[in-house]
Amino acid sequence: MTQLQEAISGRITKEMEIVAQQECVSVEWLRTEIAKGTIVIPRNYNHNFIPRGIGKRLSVKINANIGTSALQCNLNNELKKLEIAVQYGADAVMDLSTAGNLHEILKQIINHSPLMVGTVPIYSAAVKALKDDLNDIGKLDFEDVFKEIEYQASIGVDFMTIHCGITKRSLSFLENDQRILGIVSRGGSIIRAWMNYNNAENPLYQEFDRILDICEKYDVTISLGDGLRPGANADATDRGQIAELLVLGELVEKARKRGIQVMVEGPGHMLLNEIEANVKIMKSVCKEAPFYVLGPLVTDIAPGYDHIVGAIGGAIAAVAGADFLCYVTPAEHLSLPTIEDVKEGVIASKIAAHAANLVKNIPGARERDKNMSIARKKLDWETMFKLSIDPEKARNKRNASLTENVDYCSMCGNLCAVKIDNLNE
User: Fold this and answer.
1) Can you tell me the distance from the alpha carbon of 367 to that of 47, in angstroms, rounded to the nearest whole number?
2) What is the Cβ-side half-sphere exposure of residue 410, based on CA atoms within 13 angstroms?
3) Quick one: pLDDT at residue 136?
4) Are both 196 and 319 inside the same structural domain?
5) Which domain holds residue 386?
6) What is the DSSP letter of 406?
7) How many domains is the chain built from?
8) How many other C-beta atoms can be found within 10 angstroms of the C-beta atom of residue 253?
9) pTM reported for the whole predicted model
């Protein structure tokens, strides 16, 4: 049985017990929320790792995307990125590989990952279909997509992004509106191209029950992809985006009725003042399903610094109710991320998640900040390093300033406000 089916039946699983302990919540409360669909525990029967929960009143989780591309295909590099993502606190990784032996790459990532692993199965099928001409996408055989979903589920993928909300009707709203950047979702662009080439409905929408059958067999969590998400601030919250969201709301309820865990993916680019409303609309339309957002990115003009842009949007989204942040790296919009980019992206998202956890009063979050303040008051540098999100960087910064053997830092020197204030106590 899936985690959702177990919860609905009133049974508490070992995964629920682990997550309840991690989050310092009642396991019975957790079971109840899983039964409602407001929390998911993505964990394939065939992937052995310590599970994490995503959703209502739990700490904000973050995902790191890794994977090969046609221009940079090195499995060892991707495994190193996985290692770095784990080291710096990611809760999940997604393998978005589009080059090399895709099945072997995915197997290796699953085998090495102590985190939940996600994928976008249509990528593998599209790579197989694409030859020399982009029009070959229209010749994609969706039987290959369903076979890929089944294969990936069988080897242990925990959650899958599946673009079921792109339909003839939702596309009609997009096409009757004016967008600057069109479709920026890779999966979304593939499906739209296929639909236009074949003048047919999206098979992933038409045969959603078939996807549910596979996910039930392995307890794969469906992540309903936002194929019509905005890729520019000027395109945010338009008719196409909202039309797709309405379809996703229907599919959330359909999945829950079958006992399949489901979360919903959210928009990429939007202005700061639109984020809260978008989160609330999604939560309402999708009946409080866990919300997985890319960024959001709050400005379009920061290539090389988009990890900062994404962290700003991610913090606001998480405070408003988003549950799962997909990291953005400095390489976003520019290139495949390097190992260092992965580190920077994870850390930026961890900062955003922690900032939201403080507001949400997640157990342990405020205590960590308080303990950092106490250590600063005591000029206890070792404790400050230990409490830092990146202890290594904090230590190196201090040591590089030639002040490692004194109790003050090179900013104020001996005219340190904390030292002076401590004289009065």
Assistant:
1) 33
2) 9
3) 85
4) yes
5) 365-422
6) S
7) 2
8) 13
9) 0.96
